[in-house]
């Protein structure tokens, strides 16, 4: 018994060493996020322009708190006349976690091996390969914020993602999940990743620490209740965070991100214009970009063509499960 145990321990230590040495090269980047306000850095170029005010279209609603009711109205589901066209919907029976890369000499007792990490986020919220020799940098991260709103749009997005074998993060708001837990479940069941986008879609920079805590933790809780696991990714509404928000997010084991490619799909200039959504994304296309989109009818309509165009340019889609959250290093620097 003791021999076996020590063997196990040394294996674990060796694995840990391998993992940390693999990470440390890029780790500094995320670790040093504090030195420069990365959030601002990413948004600097166009802070105001790119600021997603997805709920801004209904600014009539006022800033109060994300009133789901009114927000829904603006999205005029009628425009989304695209039939969700259920082709091959049940393709994805496997949630992302199932895509495990089994260790060659796995000890039966050890936990299931996590998915192999291939990418790390950099200071401007784009993604770079951990091993440039073996992993392509010609990839994008697809994200859809502010849902889940309607089955019609959610299903259409999921179908298109399936069609292109693409993965994405759906950054959800708690008040919407509360109204449509079945939609959240559907997103997770179809193998897509859930991210935390605060409960009410409010500017967390303006909130007290207690309020921020509630905004973030309540979403962790409801997502766990509905799909069984807590989100590992967080995006603040409007891209607005501060050190407290970032620290709390990290404490909850989440990677904090804004984006590096705004589709402007939330902006009035793009409303009802799927072609504009596509053009905006392609205009800012670079290897590793983190593409901000929303659950909106014109985005839903644009997605199939957008993904086809990205593929024709040689781009692949990052599976969020392959993102190294880099939390070890972040925790170290925080202390
Ligand atoms: Zn949002």
Automatic annotation (TrEMBL):
Q: Where is the composition biased (Basic and acidic residues)?
A: 76-88
Residues in the signal sequence: 1-25
Which domain of life does the UniProt lineage start with?
Answer: Bacteria
Q: Which SUPFAM superfamilies is this protein grouped with? A: Glycoside hydrolase/deacetylase
Organism, scientific name: Paenibacillus lignilyticus
Q: What is this protein called?
A: Polysaccharide deacetylase family protein
Polar residues bias locations: 37-49
Note the Gene3D superfamilies from the entry.
Answer: Glycoside hydrolase/deacetylase
Could you tell me which residues belong to the region Disordered? 23-114
Q: Can you give the residue ranges of the NodB homology domain? A: 138-318
């Amino acid at each position: 018994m003791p021999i076996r145990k020590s063997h196990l321990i040394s294996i674990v230590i060796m694995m840990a060493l391998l993992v940390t040495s693999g990470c440390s090269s890029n780790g500094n980047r995320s670790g040093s996020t504090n030195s420069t306000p990365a959030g601002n850095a990413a948004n600097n170029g166009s802070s105001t322009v790119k600021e997603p005010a997805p709920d801004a279209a209904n600014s009539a609603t006022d800033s109060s708190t994300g009133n789901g009711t009114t927000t829904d109205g603006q999205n005029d589901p009628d425009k989304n006349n695209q039939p969700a066209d259920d082709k091959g919907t049940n393709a994805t029976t496997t949630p992302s976690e199932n895509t495990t890369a089994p260790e060659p000499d796995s000890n039966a007792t050890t936990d299931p091996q996590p998915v192999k990490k291939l990418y790390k986020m950099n200071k401007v919220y784009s993604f770079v390969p951990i091993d440039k020799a073996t992993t392509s940098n010609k990839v994008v991260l697809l994200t859809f914020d502010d849902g889940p709103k309607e089955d019609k749009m959610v299903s259409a997005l999921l179908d298109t993602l399936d069609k292109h074998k693409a993965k994405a993060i759906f950054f959800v708001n708690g008040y919407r999940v509360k109204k449509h837990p079945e939609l959240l479940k559907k997103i997770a069941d179809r193998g897509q990743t859930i991210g935390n986008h605060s409960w009410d879609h409010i500017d967390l920079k303006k909130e007290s620490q207690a309020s921020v805590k509630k905004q973030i933790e309540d979403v962790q809780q409801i997502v766990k209740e509905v799909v069984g696991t807590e989100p590992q990714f967080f995006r603040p509404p409007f891209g607005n965070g501060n050190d407290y928000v970032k620290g709390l997010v990290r404490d909850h084991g989440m990677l904090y991100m804004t984006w590096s490619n705004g589709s402007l799909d939330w902006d009035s200039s793009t409303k009802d214009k799927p072609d504009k959504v596509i053009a905006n994304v392609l205009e800012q296309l670079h290897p590793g970009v983190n593409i901000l989109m929303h659950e909106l009818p014109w985005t839903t309509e644009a997605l199939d063509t957008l993904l086809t165009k990205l593929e024709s340019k040689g781009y692949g889609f990052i599976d969020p499960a392959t993102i190294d959250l880099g939390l070890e290093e972040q925790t170290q620097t925080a202390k």
